[in-house]
């Protein structure tokens, strides 16, 4: 029996009931002869002392054992761990005495691993009987066809893979210091990178996050994480392995609330897109440049270890989607090279035993129609597309009414075409979208770059700069002040727009395999926060109960400024 699960006290101590029976028997016996009373008092005193000692030891042992039963309320803290139980040379990521947060982690030291990835922090038992809500099956029941029951999920983005616009407080430095991504942040922080990032990991997403996600009627969670959770390489400043245990704990919290998981490898060696959320903004070194092939192989090596780990029985019911590479920039990279790498990664993951999860690959911004006839013959493979109007200079200029119409008509048409293997790839899900109608959020377009909305996007590359306003009025009135206002300042008309815009997207994306909102929460960009949208009343109280579905009339929003 697993330590800490026995109903009896360790070390042979009797139960409380047995002590009571012994005392009853003592009082029920006839009184002893007088000449024995003195001896009885001596023996009795010794007996009482022994009983007290047994009870004290039992209480201490019982409290210690409760830390092994998976109960969050009784999880031990690092201060309860004897220092001599941890080897002096244990690395920080295996040593709970050095962890910022020990909540719900198994603190029994172990070097055991699966796929050369540590199991430290995990309990040996799990329970898949929970379900996110009454409209979906429990984890230990089959989900069924995603085309008939689409996923309704959310990303916990900005947590294990940093993104400046989600947590700008981590990037509030003078621009001259060049701190623009996780690479430059950890380079600057040096030895402090560990404490700063672990404090973020421990507080930005907690158990309450997943409880609230389930309460919102959502049923899936996409968890972005980076390759340095698994491995780092020469020259990497990233925090090695710490995020790994937070990923595993996050999955266990999803399990507790019946939420299925979409694993998303968000940052690959070399950077697959050159954007800040890949770890390092700038040149693409994945399948490109001097180390392009090396980094492609390193990425396969990362998946080799990940897939061996997540092939364990404990993950068969909860890992619904397994993502290979977030947003590879195929408008720059060789499409054939990325496709070949994707096929190799797929075969590797399947060979290692991930048999039930749908494997996910990114559309690479090629356009959904261009995936027709590609990667055929690979079972249980799905195409992932991310849909936004604000990163397209021709779409950000749409007025409020047109944005909703485009979500209803344009994205519905794209989703339907992509789902049909005669006109598209087939299984398609939208793993990122939001209610944002401007690109005004601080650091959204990279630290210090400005934005399209006001015509201040200065990338340092003249061919990519946008220096004329692209709000619908396309004039000097375009401003970000009101666009970046707190949700409490939103007008009722703007709230109506946001609600319709969100539900139009939900309706369109449910024509495919479903959707994942980007993201659950932000520090100060409410149009990107599902949590804040719920609180403001611009998202359905339950994700499965929409009040707008594109069949109703769309207002003109004539009272709503198009320039803010």
UniProtKB/TrEMBL annotation:
Keywords tagged on the record: Cell membrane, Cell wall biogenesis/degradation, Glycoprotein, Glycosidase, Hydrolase, Membrane, Signal-anchor, Transmembrane, Transmembrane helix
Glycoside hydrolase family domain sequence ranges: 202-439
Main localization, broad class: membrane
Domain of life (superkingdom): Eukaryota
Species the sequence originates in: Coniochaeta pulveracea
Keyword Glycoprotein: yes
One BP annotation, GO: cell wall organization
Official protein name in the record: glucan 1,3-beta-glucosidase
Function, as annotated: Glucosidase involved in the degradation of cellulosic biomass. Active on lichenan.
């Amino acid at each position: 029996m697993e330590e800490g699960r026995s109903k009896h006290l360790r070390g042979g101590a009797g139960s409380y009931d047995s002590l009571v029976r012994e005392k009853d028997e003592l009082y029920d016996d006839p009184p002893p002869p007088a000449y024995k009373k003195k001896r009885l008092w001596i023996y009795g005193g010794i007996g009482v002392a022994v009983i007290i000692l047994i009870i004290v030891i039992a209480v201490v042992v019982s409290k210690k054992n409760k830390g092994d039963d998976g109960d969050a309320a009784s999880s031990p803290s690092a201060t309860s761990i004897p220092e001599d139980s941890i080897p002096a040379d244990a690395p920080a990521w295996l040593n709970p005495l050095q962890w910022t947060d020990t909540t719900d982690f198994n603190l029994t030291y172990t070097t055991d691993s699966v796929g050369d990835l540590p199991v430290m922090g995990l309990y040996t038992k799990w329970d898949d009987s929970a379900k996110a809500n009454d409209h979906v099956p429990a984890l230990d029941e089959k989900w069924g066809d995603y085309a008939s029951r689409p996923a309704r999920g959310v990303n916990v983005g900005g947590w294990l893979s940093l993104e400046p616009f989600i947590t700008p407080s981590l990037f509030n430095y003078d621009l001259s210091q060049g701190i623009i991504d996780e690479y430059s942040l950890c380079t600057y922080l040096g030895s402090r990178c560990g404490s700063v990032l672990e404090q973020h990991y421990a507080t930005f997403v907690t158990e309450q996050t997943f409880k609230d996600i389930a309460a919102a009627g959502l049923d899936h969670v996409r968890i972005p994480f980076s390759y340095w959770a698994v491995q780092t390489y020469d020259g990497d400043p990233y925090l090695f392995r710490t995020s790994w245990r937070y990923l595993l704990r996050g999955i266990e919290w999803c399990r507790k609330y019946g939420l299925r998981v979409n694993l998303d490898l968000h940052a690959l060696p070399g950077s697959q897109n050159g954007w800040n959320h890949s770890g390092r903004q700038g040149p693409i070194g994945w399948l490109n440049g001097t180390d392009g092939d090396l980094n492609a192989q390193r990425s396969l090596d990362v998946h080799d270890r990940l897939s061996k780990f997540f092939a364990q029985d404990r993950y068969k019911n909860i890992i619904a989607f397994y993502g290979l590479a977030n947003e590879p920039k195929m408008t720059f990279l060789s499409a054939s090279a990325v496709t070949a790498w994707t096929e190799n990664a797929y075969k590797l993951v399947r060979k290692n035993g991930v048999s039930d999860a749908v494997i996910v690959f990114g559309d690479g911004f090629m356009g959904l129609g261009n995936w027709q006839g590609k990667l055929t013959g690979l079972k249980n493979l799905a195409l992932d597309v991310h849909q936004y109007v604000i990163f397209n200079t021709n779409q950000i200029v749409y007025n409020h009414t047109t944005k909703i119409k485009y979500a209803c008509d344009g994205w519905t048409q794209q989703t339907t075409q992509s789902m049909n293997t005669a006109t598209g790839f087939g299984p398609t899900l939208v793993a990122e979208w939001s209610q944002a109608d401007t690109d005004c959020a601080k650091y959204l377009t990279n630290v210090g770059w400005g934005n399209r909305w006001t015509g201040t996007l200065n990338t340092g590359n003249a061919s990519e700069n946008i220096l004329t306003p692209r709000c619908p009025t396309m004039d000097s009135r375009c401003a970000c002040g009101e666009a970046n206002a707190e949700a409490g300042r939103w007008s009722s008309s703007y709230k109506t727009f946001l609600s319709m815009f969100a539900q139009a997207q939900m309706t369109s994306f449910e024509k495919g395999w479903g959707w994942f909102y980007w993201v659950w929460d932000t520090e100060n960009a409410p149009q990107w926060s599902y949590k804040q949208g719920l609180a403001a009343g611009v998202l359905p109280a339950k994700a499965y109960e929409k009040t707008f579905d594109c069949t109703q009339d769309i207002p003109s929003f004539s009272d709503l400024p198009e320039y803010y």
